[in-house]
TrEMBL record:
PROSITE patterns: NUDIX, NUDIX_BOX. The keyword Hydrolase applies. It comes from Macrococcus epidermidis. This is Nudix hydrolase domain-containing protein. Keywords: Hydrolase. Pfam families: NUDIX (PF00293). One of its GO terms (molecular function) is hydrolase activity. The lineage of its organism: Bacteria, Bacillati, Bacillota, Bacilli, Bacillales.
Length: 252
């Protein structure tokens, strides 16, 4: 990994605006181009933001910013970028080299849930962080959260609906980012369908099939995830705990 530290000095009182812009536009634009966020910090008075990014190699870093300007995500962010730039005093990159190998082998676990209504339409959301596409509701697990609880929480947060998890339909592993994803089957048991202003701009049920999906779902990974889940090929899944060993929930 080729690591670069970015130091951004901002005008006092500009932190909330710049942080919101980062999570809405910058983060996922970088991730979709193969860059890894190692970490992001702000100083005590919130005037200096420090980011460490991991690129594939030096060429990836040198070519990245021209590549980014050509993306639809970047083009859509330009109106907000102009408003955000007024808060920035300076921005400086520094290439950094680790003094040793201190990393632990960790993976990130995320979940998605396939939910359908009586007409077999699929529940999809448009995330603030991935506004270019519709996708299944879902996200990363919180610390110490099991996959079933995380899947239920994400659907509630993003759509307002309460669901019961009925089975595991599909799993995948993103070797680039280390994200392991599990797509579950869910059934609506309550709640009210609605946007979450902090997470989604659009939620609803859509008629989806292999012929029209690319018109609604613009990211190939999301398209494959939905089509595989719609095949309803249930996978065995056990949620258990140790000391003593006990199965908490099981799907066949």
């Amino acid at each position: 990994m080729f690591e670069v530290k970015t130091e951004i000095k901002i005008i006092p009182d500009g932190y909330e605006s710049t942080n919101r812009y980062f999570h809405k536009h910058v983060l996922n634009n970088y991730l979709e181009l193969g860059v890894t966020l190692v970490g992001r910090w702000v100083n005590e008075d919130k005037t200096i933001i420090t980011e460490v990014w991991g690129y594939l190699d030096e060429k990836h870093y040198r070519d990245f910013f021209e590549l980014r300007k050509k993306t639809k995500h970047y083009q859509n962010s330009l109106p907000d970028k102009l408003a955000n730039d007024k808060w920035i005093i300076s921005k400086k990159d520094m290439i950094i080299t680790p003094t040793g190998d201190y990393k632990m082998d960790l993976h990130i676990v995320s979940t998605n849930v396939l939910v359908q209504n009586e007409e077999d339409e699929v529940l999809l959301v448009r995330s603030l962080h991935r506004s270019d596409t519709l996708e299944l509701p879902g996200g990363r697990l919180d610390k110490d959260e099991d996959m079933i609880s995380g899947a239920v929480r994400e659907v509630k947060e993003e759509t307002g609906l309460d669901v019961a998890i009925k089975g595991l339909l599909y799993s995948s592993h993103n070797k680039t980012s280390g994200v392991v994803n599990f797509t579950f089957l869910g059934e609506v048991i309550g709640g009210t369908l609605q946007n979450n202003d902090e997470e989604t701009t659009d939620v609803g049920f859509y008629a989806i099939n292999s012929e029209n999906i690319s018109k609604l779902v613009t990211r190939k990974v999301s398209e494959d995830r939905i089509l595989n889940a719609l095949e309803k090929k249930a996978q065995k899944f056990d949620l258990y705990e140790n000391n003593p060993y006990k199965i908490i929930e099981s799907f066949k």
